[in-house]
Amino acid sequence: MVWLQGGPFLEVSFVLKLDGEKKEAIQAIIDKLSNLDHKIEIVEERLGEIINSFSNGYPYDIEDPETVFIHAMHLRLYVHVAGRRKANLQIEQISSNALLVFFCFYGSEYDAPEWDQIGIGDEDLICFNSFLTELYTTFQFKLGSIGVEEDVLGLLDCEQVRPNECYRFEKIKTQSFFDRNLTSFHSVIWNEQYGKLDPIPFDYKRLNHSGLFIKGNNRSRKERT
Questions:
Q1: Does the chain have fewer CB atoms within 10 Å around its N or its C terminus?
Q2: Helix intervals (H) in 14-166
Q3: How sure is the predictor about 178, in pLDDT bands with cuts at 50, 70 and 90?
Q4: Residue 3: HSE in the Cβ half-sphere, 13 Å Cα cutoff
Q5: Four-CA torsion 10, 169, 210, 184, nearest 10 degrees
Q6: What share of the chain is helix, strand, coil (3-state, %, to 5)?
Q7: Superkingdom of this entry's organism (predicted)?
C-alpha cells in the first residue's frame, strides 16, 4: 500500500554537505533525526539494508558503461509535528559533495481518515516552521525550506537531472533565490555563514548559528482570501 496518498504535499527539505563515506553520512543523519524534540518514528524494519543500498547505489542506465550512479533512499515515517502524522523521508545525493534531505507530508487542509492522514490547517504551519527551525539547529544546513509541491532545489537556478555538478555544495549561493518571489514557499532558512543577505527583500528573523528565517509568499489560506 502507498504510504502517502492524495495531495497536495507539503515538503520540508534542506541541503547538506557530503563529507566522508556515504554510509557513515547517512547513519549520522538518521541518528540526529532520532534525537529531535519533534519525535520521528521510522516504520521500516530493514533500515540497515536500506542504508547499504544507498551506499552502493544503482546505475542510471545499465546499458551505458559511463552512466552515473544514483544514490537515494526512502523511509516511511511518523513525525510528531502538529500531531502524529505520516511522512516520507527521502535522502538523495545530488552532486559529488551535496545531499538533499526532504520530508514529504500530506498537505491538504482536510483530513483523509481512509488513508490515516491528517490535514494541515493554517494554525499547524507554525508548528512546521518550528520543525524546520529545529532541523536547522540540529544540522546547521546551508539552505532549507517549506514548500508546497516544491523542495528546496526549486530555489536554485539549476534544473538539470540529478545528480549533477551544478548542485555542488559551494555553488548554492544567496543569488540563487535572492530575486525570486518565493510563491511556492511558506518559509526558507539560509545559513549566513555562507554569505550575507544585505539588503534582505523579505520578512525575516534571525536564528542562532547564523540562521536567517525568511517568510515566503505562499500565505495562509486566510491571508489569500
A1: N
A2: 22-33, 47-56, 125-139
A3: low
A4: 17
A5: -30
A6: 30, 30, 40
A7: Bacteria
